[in-house]
Amino acid sequence: MKEEIIIKKVAVKNWEKFKEIRLEALKNNPEAFGSSYEEEVQRSDERWRISLANKNKTVFLALDRKIPIAIATISYESMIKMNHLANIYSVYVKPEYRGRAISSKLIKSILADVKKKKRIKKIKLNVVTTQLPAINLYKKFGFKIIAKLSKEVKLGKRYYDEYMMEKKL
User: What 3-state class would DSSP assign to 121?
Assistant: First the structure.
């Protein structure tokens, strides 16, 4: 059966699809996220809905025939002194869908969303230094490494470094 990949913004009513892929991401790649599966699996359904209702955040979901296969989030700063900034986080593609340019489609969707907000002058993100495909993806879209953060994430007894990246618009 042929893939039918659709990228769309997640509406609050679709919180269960978001929850499903988010929890899978935390299980499969725990080093890549600040929160943990153990913490988020305990969230109430109401907290999942509230998370998606945040007007300063947009979650994009990739679907293959209505099955969630990838997510990415962009948040927009609301404080007056920082409302020119946006942050990308929680980018994840199911392992069996990697290498099919789905993450590129997600980033293109995010950049199109950012473009509508004329006030945004810079997009930031952090990525674990060992995630070379993700780093190369961000570089392809014009993000530059501006810092290395040592021991930024701790998983068990192991620490992971992250690169801080940015794209000026």
Answer: coil
